[in-house]
Amino acid sequence: MSAAVAPHRFTLEEYEQIVHLGVFDTGPRVELIEGEVIDMVRQNQAHAVALSLVDRQLRRVYFEDHVIRIQSPLALGDASEPEPDIAVVPGEPRDYLTSHPRSAVLVVEVAGASLHFDRTAKLALYARHGIPDYWIVNLVDDVIETYRNPAGAAYQEARTHRRGEAVALGKAPTQLKVSDMLP
Predict the structure, then answer these.
(1) How far is residue 161's CA from residue 177's CA, in Å, rounded to a whole number?
(2) Within a 10 A sphere around the Cβ of 2, how many other Cβ atoms?
(3) 85-104 pLDDT, tens per residue?
(4) Which one, of 115, 61, 127, 120, lies nearest residue 88 by Cα?
(5) How far, in Å, CA of 108 to CA of 36, rounded?
(6) pLDDT tens, the chain, 183 aa long
(7) Buried residues in 140-173 as b, exposed as e (16+ CB within 10 A)
(8) From CA 101, how far away is CA 82, in angstroms rounded?
(9) What share of the chain is helix, strand, coil (3-state, %, to 5)?
(10) Where are the alpha helices (DSSP H) in 1-160?
(11) Model pTM?
(12) Are the C-beta atoms of 137 and 162 separated by less than 8 Å?
């Protein structure tokens, strides 16, 4: 008789205990997505440059009542702790000394090899957890994709922004030039 084989799905609490023990310190960068520990793709130069460019633009807008977190955990529900490239969260840095933020006003993923994953699993995760503004800096097609108005596991509004265009920050009147955020 053969036994059924199933992967172990981690809770956020279990994952954080394992991280605290240093289990993942020497291996690849990982994230907890819907209970699964996912190996993340290493950054190439274009990814690192895009991350810096987007960070620079966002810091010009968000500076007093928000924190811009770079590749830092978001605790979403009981089974996910992604580390988005950028998450803009309300408050001050010390507000998150005892726990990671549980939401964000904006999440940005820079995507090359991870484009499919960011458009599917990550998009569904962020929508389910009510992240109002999700951007993908798409290095493959040299565009910025914006997703707004989460509903279930999807977003009601999706737009693609090209060089020469601007991206609005949610419902705010501030707009950022796409070409200032693409390498």
Answers:
(1) 9
(2) 4
(3) 999 999 999 999 999 999 99
(4) 61
(5) 21
(6) 556 787 888 989 988 888 888 888 877 788 899 999 988 888 899 999 999 999 999 998 876 789 999 999 999 999 999 999 999 999 999 999 999 999 999 999 999 999 999 999 999 999 999 999 999 999 999 999 999 999 999 999 999 999 999 999 876 678 999 999 999
(7) eeebbbbbbebeeeebeeeeebeeeeebebeeee
(8) 11
(9) 25, 30, 45
(10) 12-20, 45-59, 115-117, 123-128
(11) 0.91
(12) no
Give me the amino acid identity at 26. T
Phi and psi torsions of 73, nearest 5°: -65, 145
The first and second tokens of residue 55, run together, are 């960070």
Fold type of domain 41-180: tt1808, chain A (3.90.1570)
Provide the residue ranges of all domains of the chain, joining segments of one domain with +: 41-180
SS3 at position 45:
helix
